[in-house]
Amino acid sequence: MAQHAPRDALPPPQQPITPPVPPRQNARPRAVTSVAFSPDGRQLASGSDGGTLLLWDTATGQCTATLEGHWGTVTSVAFSPDGRQLASSCGSRGDDETLWLWDTATGQCTATLEVGS
């Protein structure tokens, strides 16, 4: 009859070695919450539940800019009539309750307007 070593004498079971997962490049938001086409149809803006806006080239389908600043869900996006500016809102209770104006050529925020009470 074979003898077995006591349980406390056995080495710990081998755990699989999992390499760390690098951050995703160009990570996309979890959920798109608003979209708008530019007046000329060449760009599409999308807002997300993570507070990020993305600008897309509609001809290539490529993301051309990531606009960050809101810390809540982007509830609305709209282009100016000439397409040079983009307005975004984040106005649900608990979110930042602001309107942001963006320059679509540079991706820079040009103004923020507080709308919460």
TrEMBL record:
Region of interest called Disordered, as start-end residue ranges on this chain: 1-49
Compositional bias per record (Pro residues), positions renumbered to this chain: 9-23
Cited Pfam families: WD40
InterPro entries the UniProt entry points to: WD40/YVTN_repeat-like_dom_sf, WD40_repeat_dom_sf, WD40_rpt
Record-linked Gene3D superfamilies: YVTN repeat-like/Quinoprotein amine dehydrogenase
WD repeat segments: 25-66, 67-112
SMART domains named in the record: WD40 (SM00320)
Cited SUPFAM superfamilies: WD40 repeat-like
Origin: domain of life: Eukaryota
Keyword Lipid metabolism among UniProt keywords: no
Transmembrane segment boundaries: none
Protein name, as recorded: Vegetative incompatibility protein HET-E-1
Record lineage: Eukaryota, Viridiplantae, Chlorophyta, core chlorophytes, Chlorophyceae
